Amino acid sequence: MPTRARPPSPSDVSHVGQAHERNIFSRTNDDEQPMTLAPPAERRAAIDALHGTWIPRTLAQHLDAMVELFADEPFIITDDQTWTYRQIQDWSVRLAAGLYEMGIRKGEHVVVVMANHPEFVALKFAIARLGATSVPANFLLRERELGYVIEQSDAVAVVAMDRFRDMDYVAMLDSMMPGWVENGGGTAFPKVRNVVVFSADGISRECQSLGDVEALGAGATAEAISEKVGPVDPASFSDILYTSGTTGVSKGVLLRHDMILRAAYASAHSRAITPGHRCVFSLAMYHVFGYIECMLAVS
Q1: How many domains does the chain divide into?
Q2: What is the CATH number of the domain that holds 228?
Q3: For position 276, what pLDDT does the model report?
């Protein structure tokens, strides 16, 4: 998470500190060729020079700051598509505005049951932009376990995939909270006001979809959302991550915006991650390692 005076070009990523004037890495014009890296100690010194004094931020503020520096640089790369920092910011703003129109407010909890889709990243920043708290659940949880997370976390909304491998989340929702399309959590989960379904395959279902949420926020701006929401404290809770429950009942762990960004920066510093680095990973982002070490450390 370095702070730069300008975005890096593919062949020139030099920092602006007086002590170090050589490129911290360079690459040939052929993107297939490997990068030539400066020694780790020099790259860490560059990170120190670029970052400066630590400024506590929320996740959304962090994304906005990175957009100012790396707007058109790749943030997420999949087999099918690449999203830039600005595209993820715009996406998260639309989702945040849509969630706000649905009634999600600062301090409320939103359970997210989603594998490593780009939608997960945009949704995480959207929830953070509202000052709400994300509760990313293990997407392999069965009905009883997922019901426990929804109830124990005091969730007011659930965003879930329709299916993943042999997991049918729509059937799970039907069993846990009958009538959820019209009535949310119903009598089983009275705090849950909204249930949103995301289909990676684009299957249309007779329920509120993540696309519907995004459509509600069409035309929104980050500034307009900020005016509605008000200030969000970097020391407020950004996430509730649940332990595996291997030896006992799963427990929700409270994480703060500034806390996880500090951890991500420490990871980037220890691994000497500099602008242009790419991280290939298959770790689930509902887990703290995939979330902080992979998604945030390289951002």
Answers
A1: 1
A2: 3.40.50.980
A3: 78
Sequence-ordered list of residues with C-beta below 8 angstroms from that of 210, at least 6 positions apart, any chain: 95, 119, 123, 159, 196, 197, 198
Q: Would 89 be classed as within a structural domain? A: yes
CB atoms near residue 14 (< 10 Å): 16
Question: Does the CA dihedral 16-20-25-27 come out positive or negative?
Answer: positive
What 3-state DSSP class applies to 159?
strand
158 class by beta-carbon count within 10 Å (0-12 exposed, 13-18 middle, 19+ buried): buried
User: What does the block give as tokens for 11?
Assistant: 């062949």
Instruction: State the Cα–Cα distance between residues 154 and 204, nearest whole angstrom.
Output: 29
Quote the CA–CA distance of 155 and 112 in Å, as a whole number: 10
Could you read off the pLDDT of 36-47 as tens digits, one per residue? 778 888 888 888
pLDDT tens sequence across 162-182:
999 999 999 999 999 999 999
Instruction: State the amino acid at position 21 in one-letter form.
Output: E
Provide, rounded to the nearest whole percent, the portion of the chain with pLDDT above 90. Answer: 67
Among the listed residues 111, 139, 98, the one whose alpha carbon sits nearest the alpha carbon of residue 225: 98
Q: Taking the CA atoms of 136, 59, 24 and 78 in sequence, report the sign of the dihedral they define.
A: positive
Residue 138 counted as domain residue: yes
Does 203 map to a domain? yes
Domain span holding position 112: 82-233
91 in any annotated domain: yes
Q: For 103-107, which contacts have Cβ atoms below 8 Å and span 24 or more sequence positions?
A: 103/193, 103/194, 104/130, 104/132, 104/156, 104/157, 104/194, 105/130, 105/131, 105/132, 106/130, 106/131, 106/132, 106/229, 106/230, 106/232, 107/131, 107/132, 107/133, 107/236
